[in-house]
Amino acid sequence: MTVTDEVDGVMAMKAHLIAQSDRCNDDCPLELKETKLFFRRFWVLAIFSILGCFQCVQWNTWGPLSDSVDVAFHGWGSSTVAMMANWGTITFVTFITPMCWLMTAKGLRVGVLTCAALVAIGTIVRIIPFLTTSDTFFTVMAHVCAICVGIPGTLVMAAPPLIAAEWFPPKERTTATAVAQVMNQLGSAVSYMEPLVVRSPSQGATPAEIRGDIQRLLYAWAGVGSAIFLAILIYFPPKPPTPPSRTSHVERLDFLNSVKRMLRNKDVLLVTLSYGITCGFPAAWISVLNYSLRDLGLDQEEAMWVGLSSVIVSGVVTLVAGRLTDYVYGHIKPSLIFLLICDIACYYWFFLLSWGAITFTKWQIYASVIGGLSFSFASSPLFFEVAVEICYPCSEVNVGGLLTGTNNLVGLTFLFIFFIPNIGFQWVTYLLLGAGALALIPLMFVKEDYSRSNIDRNNLQHSAYQPI
Description:
Layout (H helix, E strand, L loop, with lengths): L2 H20 L13 E3 L2 H19 L6 H7 L5 H29 L1 H18 L9 H16 L2 H6 L1 H8 L5 H19 L15 H28 L20 H9 L2 H20 L3 H6 L5 H28 L4 H23 L7 H17 L1 H12 L4 H21 L10 H18 L6 H6 L7 E3 L2
Parallel strand pairs: 1-2
Helix pairs in contact: 2-5, 2-9, 2-10, 3-10, 4-5, 4-6, 4-18, 5-6, 5-10, 8-9, 9-14, 9-17, 12-16, 12-17, 12-18, 12-19, 14-16, 15-16, 15-17, 15-19, 17-18
């Protein structure tokens, strides 16, 4: 046999394999499965991300308006505002299991449509009390809205890795997860712009004028919530006709078996613990950030800009971290350790400012708060990615549910501390600093496993691309 004949034989074999992959059925080997990319994946990610952003806006509606709502409605105060945010964590811990089951059993479309319907209903019932003048009725409906909006938070936070796995190729998965999570975080930024619409008592507005501003804002939010629901109802496909990667062909474990496998995996439990501590406290803190900054002399308007800047910068840092992870995979644990060390440094800076150990300046408040929140949130898609890799072939939404359930349980504990009489707000600085340091310990013992990515990232040149 000549060299030419041997080369021709190899080329013929490759051509045969590629042709076979185009005709591949469910019984063919995984390496011959057909994969395609569809442009519609960007619509799926975009509309889901918009829903996540809006859900976060409604969850954090009242924190940025703490001064205004205190005078507009009788009986409101820091405990009421904290409770509105706390409904999100309470409903999350309560409904994370049935909602993850719903999406695992019924598919992505049913789960997302259910979330959009609950958000729309919540924003609509909240405007009904404006037909009356009862502050008590409004407060009750505000709690009902907080519950309706809180339940969808389960899948808004848990589903991004599932959407990434169902619709995106390996080198876009962490980025897709990061985009969905960043848009959810940006909801806090949007909510911190509410003082541009609702005046505060410091601007000389009367309670009646402030109440009118809040009424107009809530009518607008009801319209937006309804529009998002209609958009998802009209078009939100459950999955692409052809999967984007080899492992997308692999049937995931059902809900019960996924839970059993996750709870028996020491590494995923360590990742979950570290994630819950790293992101749980900061995510809850941003909903009541006004109160921590008030002790430093910053009013509602100034706190708005601190919160807004924090969320925007953290979104950029999160996207950069997610994109770098897609390009240089296999080094998630060192990246997480680096982010947590930076996170601890920023919260230590804020701790020193809060206790007067260093000279107070406004720019240092901005820098320390923005830095701490940015590094905390930037670690989120990396935690999700490493957990999904370790748990493969567990369903991604169940893995996300485990992580975010722990995250919200931590946030629930944090917000309940506000109900302790006369506790003040200085304890927050201790908690943020201690949590960052504590989160490093379980992370150090995690053993990384990239089985899913190793399958997907080999021999990707046979994938085809469909523009629509």
